[in-house]
Every structure is written in structure tokens, then in C-alpha cells.
Amino acid sequence: MSQHNVTIEVANRRLKIACPKGKESALLQSANEVNSRLEKDKKSTKTPEQAMLMVALNLANDLLESQNAAKQQLQEMQNKIDLLQETIEQAVNPKKKA
Q1: Which of 3, 24, 70, 97 has the greatest CB tally within 10 Å of its CB?
Q2: Is the pLDDT of residue 1 over 70?
Q3: Cα 77 to Cα 94: distance, rounded to the nearest angstrom
């Protein structure tokens, strides 16, 4: 996948970022999310660096929560698949009672 530069603005700074073709929209949405969070945290932090750090920590926390939720959903789905498989096996191969 080839890359090209995309100009975004984060924290009132213009940045040229190398971006794979087809991922421009995701990059722009990411920049908008960071800017939105910076605006919310602006009142609770003293410096731009503190604001960026808080946004980074909050984004990392959101990522970890999403990963944990996805793992839990995957485990729940696997449990359901196992139960269905067991039910099918019992229906196909019923045990004979003595």
C-alpha cells in the first residue's frame, strides 16, 4: 500500500503525516477526536503538554477497555459455540441408557 502526506491540525498545529492511501478519512477522524478531547480537557489542565498527556492517557484507557470488551465478547461467543456444538453432538449421537 503506497503512502502520501496528509496535512492535519492538532492542538492548533499543522502537521504533515505519512498516511497509507485509503486511510485518510480515519486519520482525519483521529485528529478530530484528539482535538475534541483537548477542548474538553482544556479547562482542567494548566499547560498544553498536560492536556496532550491527559488525552493520550484517556485514549490509551479507552483502547484497553475496548480490547478487554472484545476479548470478553470473543470468550462469550466461544462459550456459545461450544455449547451449540455439544448440543448438536448429543442430538446426533445420543447415549444409550442401560
Answers
A1: 24
A2: no
A3: 25
